[in-house]
What we know:
- This protein is mainly beta.
- It has a single domain, classed as Lipid/polyisoprenoid-binding, YceI-like (Lipocalin, Beta Barrel), CATH 2.40.128.
- Helices cover 10% and strands 49% of the residues.
- It has 1 helix and 11 strands; from the N terminus they run αβββββββββββ.
- Strands 1, 2, 3, 4, 5, 6, 7, 8, 9, 10 and 11 form an 11-stranded antiparallel sheet that branches.
- The longest helix has 19 residues.
- 46% of the residues are buried.
Amino acid sequence: MISNALVKSGKYILMAAALSSSALLFAANLNLDNSKSTVHVVFKQMEVPVQARFKKFQAQIDYNASKPELSTAKVEIDVNSIDLPAPEYNQEVLKKEWFNAAQFAKASFISTSMKNLGAGKLEVSGNLTIKGKTLAVRFPLQVKTEAKGFSFEGNLPIKRLQFNIGEGEWKDTSMVADEVMIKFKVVTTSP
Length: 191
């Protein structure tokens, strides 16, 4: 029988994975406004939604508003900065079965293309790396003009098991769902 502590830690790990993916896309040699930017992961543990956030991430964004298809983004998330609703599980999700943060301290996203869909919408493709495994991903992104820069907001669905998040007994998706949603909002300012 799996303890409640392990079940809760599994949920938090999934959230962190989702968070890592979402922090990776944003704007044109712009500076990240950390006070207004967020990366969250949402997953279900025993059918109950759980949301976590990453407190530390960096983004290098080169955004071309007139030709968005020329834009690029690189995001790195500090996996150790995960913040779960139950803080006692923050250390649990860093263990080998989940994020293996001792070996893989960073999750990253590097864009490979951005397609302009009009009306401030882009389709972003790139490579997401979590726990040493890299997969190609694609997701919609909403771009809005801010006072001195831009905001980039989107959702990136992933499957945690594709990144080996939740090994051993944690592969059981009846406890912690395989589906994770990375939700992010990145706000930038001009240099």
